[in-house]
Amino acid sequence: MERKNYPVGSENYHLVEEIGRGSSSTVFRAICKPLHETVAIKILYLDQNDLGSIAYEAQTMMLVDHPNLQKAHCSFVSDHYLWIVMPFMAAGCCLRIMKSDFPNGYEEAVIATILRGVLRGLEYMHHHGDIHRDVKAGNILVDSDGAIKLSDFGVSASLFDAGDRQCSRNAFVGTPCWMAPEVIMEQNYGYKADIWSFGITALELAHGHAPSSEFLPSEVLYRTLRAASPGLDHKTDKKFSNSFMKMIDMCLNKDPCERPSAQHLLKHSFFKKARSGDYIVRKILTGLPTVGDRATEIVVKEEDLVAKKRKISQDEYNEGIIAWNFEVEDLKTWSSQQVLDGEASTSCKDQVVVQQRGRFTVVIEIDEHNAQCQKLGKKKCSLNRNDK
Ligand SMILES: Nc1ncnc2c1ncn2[C@@H]1O[C@H](COP(=O)(O)OP(=O)(O)OP(=O)(O)O)[C@@H](O)[C@H]1O
C-alpha cells in the first residue's frame, strides 16, 4: 500500500477543536489541509518538558507498526512546541468513555475485547524490547470502528538501551495507582511491570476506577508495597467470571518473575470472551457524544473541580494534611505528619526509596520505634533534589 506523506509545518494543519489534555500536552482534532484528512495532533510545550523523553515518544510513535499501537504520521517543532500528528481515534480514550457513560465499569465481554487489543500491542512492544510503563484506561484509544490502540509512549523505555535511558529504566515513572511494586522500589524492572499495570487496568475497566484511587498518591505507593494485591471480590464482583478473576490474580503477583508474559497471557481462557470491533461499537460507542463535546464537558468539569480542590487543599493544609504535589517543603511537612491507617509493619527492613522522574529522590522510612510502640508504621519522608 502506498504510504501517504504527511507534511511538516503547522501551516499545513487547521486545528478544529481540543479533544484532550494530558499532564504535559493538549490534543486537537485537526485537518491536514493538503490531504483533506482528519488527524489528531498532540502539542507539547518544549520548555516544560524533558526533551529526551519527548523526542523518544515522537520517535517511538513513528516507528511502531502494529494495529493495536497508536502510530504517529510525522512530528515537527513549531515555535517551541512539538507537534505530533497521529491518526484521529474518533471515540477517544477508554477512560473518558467510561467516565461519561459507564461510571461503574464495562461488562466482561467488552473488557476482554479491550484488554486483548492492549495485550497484543504489549506483546509487540515487549518482543521489540520496549516497556510501555504507563498502561491505563486513559492511554487506551478507541476508533469509530471499535479498533483498540495503546497510546502515549511518553514514558516508555527500551530494554536494550544503555547509558542514560538504561538509567531511566530503573526510575520511578508511570502513574501511582498502576505502578508495579518493583517500579516503586526502583529495582531493575523489566516488561513484567507492564503486566502489573495491565492487571490494574483490568480492575479499572471492571469497576470504573483503579484500586486505591481514593487515596493520596503517596499512600497508594505505600499500599502497593505493603498491602495484599488488589483483585476482584468474590462477594461484590459476582457478575464477573472466575477466569477473569484468575487472570487478574496472575498479573498482580508481587513477584514479577511469577507474572505471565503478554504472549503467555493471550492464551488465557478469559480472552476467549473477546469479540470483534463491531461489538465495541454496538455496546459502548452507539449514542456517545463526540470526543470534542466530551472534551468540552470535561474541561468545564475539571475547571470546576480545580477551583473546588484549591479551596479544599487550602483547608486541608490548614489542618496539616496536604496532597502529594512534589513541592519540597509541602511534602516534607506532610510526610513528617503522615501515619497510614491500619498499617502495622514492624520489620527492620522498612525503608523504601522512591525516585520521581529523576528530579527528586524521596526516601520513605518507617520509624521502627514508633512502629513497635504504636503498632503503626509511622512514615517519615525526606526529599532530595537530584539536579543540584
Ligand atoms: N489520536 C487521538 N485521537 C483521539 N483522541 C486522542 C488521541 N490522542 C490522545 N487523545 C485524547 O487526548 C488525551 C490526552 O492524550 P495523551 O494521554 O497522549 O496526553 P499526555 O499528555 O501524554 O497525558 P498523560 O501524560 O497525562 O498520560 C487522551 O486521554 C485522549 O482522550
UniProtKB/TrEMBL annotation:
Coiled coil start-end: none
SMART domains reported in the protein's UniProt record: S_TKc (SM00220)
Keywords: ATP-binding, Nucleotide-binding
Record-listed ATP binding positions: K42
Pfam families found in the cross-reference section: Pkinase (PF00069)
Molecular-function GO term, any one: protein serine/threonine kinase activator activity
Entry's family note: Belongs to the protein kinase superfamily. STE Ser/Thr protein kinase family. STE20 subfamily.
Protein name: Protein kinase domain-containing protein
Organism: Papaver somniferum (Opium poppy)
